[in-house]
Automatic annotation (TrEMBL):
One of its GO terms (biological process) is antigen processing and presentation, exogenous lipid antigen via MHC class Ib. The gene is LOC114512078. PANTHER family: MHC CLASS I-RELATED, T-CELL SURFACE GLYCOPROTEIN CD1E, MEMBRANE-ASSOCIATED. GO terms for cellular component: endosome membrane; external side of plasma membrane; extracellular space. Its main location: membrane. It is found in: Cell membrane; Endosome membrane. SUPFAM superfamilies: Immunoglobulin (SSF48726), MHC antigen-recognition domain (SSF54452). Residues 213-313 form the Ig-like domain. It comes from the Eukaryota. InterPro entries: Ig-like_dom, Ig-like_dom_sf, Ig-like_fold, Ig_C1-set, MHC_class-I_related, MHC_I-like_Ag-recog, MHC_I-like_Ag-recog_sf, MHC_I/II-like_Ag-recog. The keyword Nucleus does not apply. This is T-cell surface glycoprotein CD1e, membrane-associated-like isoform X2. The chain crosses the membrane at residues 326-347.
Length: 405
C-alpha cells in the first residue's frame, strides 16, 4: 500500500539537487528537514473544556473503478472539525480555517504539500500496478486514516490504519506493517511486501511520531478560540409518535450547543427517570450539535416531568423545561387575547361615544381611523402566533366597518 512512498521516493531522487541532498546515501532521518522541521516545539497543556483527547487525522479514500480510472478524496480533521481538504486538481492543500496552518512555516507547509503531491499522484498508480499481485478486485476502495492524538497535553499516540473494501486491512505498528486480525492471507502478503521497504517505513514513522504531533500541537494552539467556543443550547419539548395505547413519548430537543459534551435527563423533581433514552448527537450546519432525548411514560404520569439540561456554556445554571409548560403557555396566550378583546371593546365604545357627540361623521372617518391602529397595534405585532394576528386583524376589520357604518 505504501508503495506510494516508494515511488514517491524514486521521484524525489530524480528531482533536482536540493532533494538529492536530502536522500543522499548518508541521509538520515534528522535530515528530512521537511518532515522533522526546525524549531522543536514544546507541547503545552491545552485546556479543552472537558473534551476527549483531540486528534488530527488525515482521511484518504481511493476508489478504483478499473485499471485506468481512480478517484482520490482527502480531508484533514481536528477532532470533529474539518480543517483541510486536498485539491486534487491543483495538487494543493486547502486550509479551511485561518488557523489551519497551525504553527508550521510557509516553507514547511510547502514541502509537506510537495510530498503529498507526489504521494497522491503515485499511490493510485502503484496500487493499479500491484492490483493483480495483491488480488485487489475491481471495483475496489482503499481507505487510509493517518494521524495522532494528544493525551493530557503531553503524551501523544499515532496511528495509521488501512481498509480494503470498507474492512480493516492493515496498520502501521512501531516500525512494521501489520495485517489486521481477520484480514486474512491477502493482507499478510501485502504487509510482507511493504515491510521490505525500510526507507518508506522510516518516513511513515517520522510523519507519525514527529510531524503529526507537532502539527497537532500547533493547530490546538492556533485554533483554540474556535475549539473552545461556547454556545448555549436551545431546549424544547414535544410529543413523539405514540409508543402504544395509553402511553406518551415525551421528546426533549436540545439544539445549537457547543462543545459536544452535554447532559440531558428527564426528571421528576430531583429524581432522574431511568427510562430516558438518548439519540445520537447530530451535527447542525453551523457546527453546533443537536440531541433528542425521549421518555416513554403512561399518559397519566406525564404531568410534573421536566427535561433538565447541563452544559458547559450554561455556567452551572441548568435549563429546565416542564412537560406541562406548553399548556401554561397556551393559558397565558388565551389570557392575553382576552385582555386585548376587553380593551378593544372599551375603545370601540369610546369611539362610539365620540361619534355620537359633537364631531360630524366625515371628520371621524379621517381622524379616528389612522389613530386607532397605532393606538392598539404597535408598529410590529407583539406575537408571532398567526392565530393571534388573525384575531387581531379580524377585530381590526370589524371595528373599521363599525366605525364606517
Ligand atoms: C473505467 O471506469 C470509468 C469510471 O467508471 C469509466 O468511465 C471508464 O469508461 C472505465 N474504463 C474502462 C477501460 O473500462
Amino acid at each position: 500500500m505504501l508503495l506510494l512512498l516508494l515511488l514517491l521516493f524514486k521521484k524525489i531522487l530524480c528531482h533536482g539537487p536540493s532533494t538529492m541532498v536530502l536522500f543522499s546515501p548518508s541521509f538520515n532521518l534528522s535530515q528530512l528537514s521537511f518532515l522533522c522541521l526546525s524549531a522543536a516545539q514544546v507541547l503545552g497543556p491545552h485546556h479543552l473544556a472537558a473534551e476527549e483527547p483531540l486528534s488530527f487525522r488525515v482521511l484518504q479514500t481511493f476508489s478504483f473503478a478499473n485499471h485506468s480510472w481512480a478517484h482520490t478524496e482527502v480531508s484533514g480533521w481536528l477532532g470533529e472539525l474539518q480543517t483541510h481538504r486536498w485539491d486534487s486538481v491543483l495538487g494543493t492543500i486547502r486550509f479551511l480555517w485561518p488557523w489551519s496552518e497551525g504553527s508550521f512555516s510557509k516553507e514547511e507547509l510547502k514541502n509537506l504539500q510537495y510530498l503529498l503531491q507526489l504521494y497522491f499522484h503515485s499511490f493510485p498508480q502503484q496500487v493499479q500496478a500491484f492490483s493483480s499481485q495483491f488480488q485487489f478486485e475491481y471495483p475496489f476502495e482503499l481507505q487510509i486514516a493517518f494521524g495522532c492524538r494528544m493525551h493530557s497535553g503531553k503524551a501523544s499516540e499515532s496511528f495509521l490504519n488501512g481498509a480494503y473494501q470498507g474492512s480493516d486491512f492493515l496498520s502501521f505498528q512501531g516500525n512494521f506493517w501489520k495485517p489486521s486480525p481477520g484480514a486474512g492471507s491477502q493482507a499478510q502478503k501485502v504487509c510482507e511486501v511493504l515491510n521490505h521497504y525500510q526507507v518508506v517505513k522510516e518516513i511513515v514513522q517520522s510523519l507519525l511520531v514527529d510531524t503529526c504531533p507537532r502539527y497537532l500541537a500547533g493547530l490546538l494552539e492556533a485554533g483554540k478560540s474556535e475549539l473552545e467556543r461556547q454556545v448555549k443550547p436551545e431546549v424544547w419539548v414535544s410529543k413523539g409518535s405514540s409508543p402504544g395505547p395509553g402511553r406518551l413519548l415525551l421528546v426533549c430537543h436540545v439544539s445549537g450547543f457547543h462543545p459536544k459534551p452535554v447532559w440531558v435527563m428527564w426528571m421528576r423533581g430531583e429524581k432522574e427517570q431511568l427510562g430516558t433514552q438518548r439519540s445520537e448527537l447530530l451535527p447542525n450546519v453551523d457546527r453546533t450539535w443537536y440531541l433528542r432525548v425521549t421518555l416513554n411514560v403512561a399518559a397519566g404520569e406525564a404531568a410534573g416531568l421536566t427535561c433538565r439540561v447541563k452544559h458547559s456554556s450554561l455556567g452551572g445554571h441548568d435549563i429546565i423545561i416542564h412537560w406541562d409548560g406548553y399548556p401554561i403557555l397556551l393559558i397565558c396566550i388565551c389570557l392575553a387575547v382576552l385582555v386585548t378583546l376587553v380593551i378593544l371593546v372599551l375603545v370601540d365604545s369610546w369611539f362610539k361615544k365620540q361619534s355620537s357627540s359633537s364631531l360630524p361623521t366625515a371628520q371621524i372617518r379621517t381622524s379616528a381611523l389612522p389613530i386607532y391602529p397605532t393606538l392598539l397595534f404597535p408598529q410590529k405585532p407583539i406575537s408571532k402566533n398567526p392565530g393571534i394576528q388573525e384575531v387581531f386583524s379580524a377585530w381590526h376589520r370589524n371595528l373599521g366597518s363599525k366605525i364606517d357604518s
